[in-house]
Amino acid sequence: MTLNICVILADDRPAGPGERRFLAALAQDARLLVVGVFAAPTAVRPLPGALRGALKIEVRAFPAPDTAPGLTAQPGPIPPGGLPACDVIVDFAHATLDATPAHGIWRLSAFSPDAAITEARLRAAVTEVILTVDAVPAARAAYDTKFLATRNAAYAREKSVQLLHRELARLAQTGTRPARIAHPTGPVRPRNRHLPDYIGAVGRELAMRAWRKVQVKRGQRPGMFFLRLGHGTLADLDPARGTDLIPDGNTYWADPFLFEDGGETYLFYEDFDFATGRGHLSVGRIEGDAMTPLGPVMVQPHHLSYPFVFRWGDEILMIPETHQAERIEVWRATGFPLKWELASTALEGVKAVDTVVFEHEGAWWLLTNICRDSFGDFGTELHLYRIDDPMLGGATPHPLNPVVIDATSARGGGRVFEHEGRLLRASQDNSHGVYGYGLNLMEITALSDTDYAERRLRHLSPDALPGVMGLHHMDAAGGRTVIDLRRTFTGLHRSGRGKHQHAAAQEHHHQGEPDERRLGDGEAEPDLHTQ
Fold first, then answer.
1. What Å distances lie between residue 415 and 68, 185, 256, CA to CA?
2. Using CA atoms, how far apart are residues 268 and 285, in angstroms rounded to an integer?
3. Which among 203, 202, 266, 264 is positioned nearest to 229, based on CA atoms?
4. E strand residue ranges, 232-338
5. What is the pTM of this model?
6. Local structure of residue 421 (DSSP, 8 states)
7. Which residues pair with 108 in a beta bridge?
8. Contacts from 197-204 at CB under 8 Å and sequence distance 24+?
9. How far apart are CA 51 and CA 192, in angstroms?
10. Cβ atoms of residues 338 and 309 within 8 Å
11. Residues 6+ apart with CB under 8 A from 45
């Protein structure tokens, strides 16, 4: 069915990127018809004076990016006779409204004047946004917290309109209002007395960032990736055990994929060179507990990563990450493992990363992460497409895209595969202010043209890994596992890049150490039905 929607904007501030993106998205969605856009005063108490003044200074000093489209028409005041008849009121102003639409008044917590400030002050792992329908919590999203409060608020507002759009699409699809979700009490409202604490937190963060720049000039790199090769499956992977594969020179290795062919196991990976500022794709052969690099697989003028290699019938295909080319590409091996040719493309004009395809119960699906915001964030929204086959023909977006909106689980961290009757997806946890903070094994529990759901079975974090700040990607094949990890700071080899004729390897068994533990073996979390 088609929903008639009234939109309320705040009358004391111009429409921000979030509101503008929301209206632009609705203008292209036949399921949702905007019958009027109006301005009204907020009914939420303003921030205390000193705090409000400090944040005004902050936003002038550190303005948030804004690439959203403009408004096609300016909002007018609410007519004396009230709002026109509509099914849903979307209230960005958090106003006092005398109306009872059939499907309620919808509000996002991110648009409250005090939203996202406390999370920035406390350096929260994530900033949560709640969608309420008639003041009842109905859906949630989680975003990595920015350390500046004004930027964190702008980020949450612009991103969370995708949650609002998706839930309106779900209502149009099912005809049923969202049900109540369990939600704990939100963060403490910011007050003037919190200002010194917040200023101190910002000062420490700026000092740390400045120190990182000094360390880079001294020949160190923050967060460089390396690979760890182990034994087993992803279900029992222990990130503390394995052989480390560390490149020479001013480079790092990341996004590893294992592939078996002709009785050999090959390792494909991103080969990032700081000298050029971009990555290309390379491959090596696994020999015992070491890797022999075989050379570059693919080099382009733009950045390449995430070499998702898979078999389809008699062909070996690869879907690399090519978001700077603004399309998804499928490459065919013509002389495996080093020679490839472009076979097909899809989603032209779309910036997408970490794409995988898979077959399930006779249907082919594509999962990818797409950026639709001013901040260049690919880590929070997972998009699902139905496709004809791995050549990506007939790509049809899922009606509830993005099917996952959560920085702790949305972004791809490896392939989708079946294990003991379960359909599993490797995903990243991009929380705690760290890209690639942790990894998940997600079980896909519902997959159809009208539904998607998943739950977390395992979570891997860097807590028990000395010198490691994150875990970013994992894969398994032929009884072998591989994972990439992020070091804190690492001195560079001054001798240069090297030719990688062999990999530097170190054994990391950590046997008997006090911090050795198996991560994420507790009970599975509840199903997350696109929330």
1. 32, 36, 11
2. 9
3. 266
4. 242-246, 251-261, 264-273, 278-287, 290-298, 305-312, 315-321, 328-335
5. 0.91
6. T
7. 131
8. 197/121, 198/54, 198/117, 198/120, 198/121, 198/149, 199/54, 201/120, 201/121, 201/123, 201/147, 202/147, 202/148
9. 5
10. no
11. 113
Q: Which two tokens stand for residue 343?
A: 């076979």
Count of alpha carbons within 13 angstroms of residue 362, beta-carbon side: 0
Which pair of structure tokens corresponds to residue 40? 């009204």
Sign of CA pseudo-dihedral 66, 158, 370, 439: positive
Strand partners, 7: 37, 90
Residue type, 405: I
Beta strands in 81-135 (DSSP E): 88-91, 105-108, 126-133
**Which residues, 6 or more positions from 59, have their beta carbon under 8 angstroms from its beta carbon?**
150
**Integer Cα distance of 308 and 382 in angstroms:** 17
Give the integer Cα–Cα distance in Å for 13 and 493: 52
What H or E segment, with its residue span, contains residue 445?
strand 438-447
d(CA 160, CA 361): 33
DSSP 3-state of 235:
helix
* C-alpha separations of 34 from 7, 23, 379 in Å: 7, 8, 30
State the chain's maximal CA–CA distance in angstroms.
78
pLDDT tens, residue order, the chain (531 aa): 899 999 999 999 999 999 999 999 999 999 999 999 999 999 999 999 999 999 999 999 999 999 999 998 889 999 999 999 999 999 999 999 999 999 999 999 999 999 999 999 999 999 999 999 999 999 999 999 999 999 999 999 999 999 999 999 999 999 988 889 998 777 888 999 999 999 999 999 999 989 888 887 877 776 789 999 999 999 889 999 999 999 988 899 999 999 999 999 999 999 999 888 899 999 999 999 999 999 999 999 999 999 999 999 999 999 999 999 999 999 999 999 999 999 999 999 999 999 999 999 999 999 999 999 999 999 999 999 999 999 999 999 999 999 999 999 999 999 999 999 999 999 999 999 999 999 999 999 999 999 999 999 999 999 989 999 999 999 999 899 999 999 886 544 333 333 333 333 333 333 322 222 222 223 333 333 333
